[in-house]
Write a structure and sequence with these properties.
Elements (H helix, E strand, L loop, with lengths): L5 H10 L6 H41 L24 E3 L2 E5 L19 E2 L6 E2 L8 E9 L2 E8 L4 E8 L19 E6 L2 E6 L5 E5 L7 E4 L5 E6 L2 E6 L10 E3 L13 E4 L2 E5 L5 E6 L4 E10 L3 E8 L13 E7 L7 E5 L21 E7 L2 E6 L2 E5 L6 E7 L5 E2 L6
Parallel strand pairs: 2-21, 3-25, 4-7
Antiparallel strand pairs: 1-2, 5-6, 5-26, 6-7, 8-9, 9-10, 11-12, 12-13, 13-14, 15-16, 16-17, 18-19, 19-20, 20-21, 22-23, 23-24, 24-25
Amino acid sequence: MRREDVQPLLYQAADRLPEPDLADTAWAGGLATRRRKRRNLLVGLLIVLIVAVVAAIGAGVSGGRNAELVPPPTTPTFPPGYVPPAGQIAGIDFWIAPPAGSERFLDRIYTPLGDRLSRPDDPGPLSENPIENLAAVVLEERGGRYDALLLGADSTWARADLQLAPISIGSPLSSGAVSPDGRTAAFPQPGELVTLDAVTAAVARYQLPTQDLRSVAWTPDAQHVLVSGPGTAYRVLVREGDYGEKPVVAIPPSRNPASITAPFRIESNSVLRHLANGEWSLDSELNLPVRTWVGQTFSTYSMAARLFVSEDLQQVPTKASQPQVVAAISTLRALPSQLLVLAETDQSTPAMDPQHLREPGCCAVLGWYDDNQPLIQVDGWVLAWDVRIGKVRRVAELDVDGLALGPGIRP
């Protein structure tokens, strides 16, 4: 058979086949599709109805206990080394500090103060040994006057021959003597404020109308020094300041000169914020069992810390002395405040000295090691309390009477 004979044969075979009715086929397909959609819709409605009935039955059985529908709370996570608080005082978590006599057994923070801080034997003159970042200032009495011994962040010492006069309470060294930038130290003197530049060794004197001045504290911008005595206080401009600003301005005083601090002061039952005009505004109220506040207030960006001698505490009973408490008060609403109680020595512990009590005046806040650790002076020691985990560590043993710390102590 030839190729050209195939096509005629195919046409002949096709003529004998019946013609399909395409309209009937399309109609039948449409009916089948509609039945399938209707069936799927009915099945879906039935499933929804069953789910609704089951949910209603479950709600009835639970008796409306919606709490069962809330996912269980997650377990809180704490930083490494976290120590649980001992309880609460006035609604604030508190920790109990290691007892007096146990300081040398605590973990240590390394600082320019060294393991034991004592006066250097023969420090060079400040004019030949400038210090750019003060870590600490101590005073040395010579012939009824005081020289300043300055410790830098690199652990080097220098002597400034200031010849400071004693004040009404003795040594003219305030715990807030060092400026926030670590460059300048300030000292109260009878009727004046004296500042010392640790880089240039330059001394400046600012005359004031009050003889009995006892405390100095810097503003955070290091432009002003707040100088105070009993019932009197001044803000002294010691740097450039604003155009036309008065060099000395009287500001609201306090009966306790150490209370005059910036940017915050903790006093009575409140935290007060220092304003640009020298006034204070209420930042928050406190409800602590305070007998008396001790030392100055030192602040970070989020907390202010000061020590108080407490009334009797049911949570921490004592026999021979009043508890002393470091209050780290949050200045941000989102962060909690915390307390550290310096209680009596546990006389049942043989390793401790049972006669070593922390009496009022022994202890005070000296500043902050970093944003989370206030530095506390106790009898013969500087301690650091980490408010994040509640742990207390030793910084240095003290062989000096008075001490002011600066930013050079920080890492």
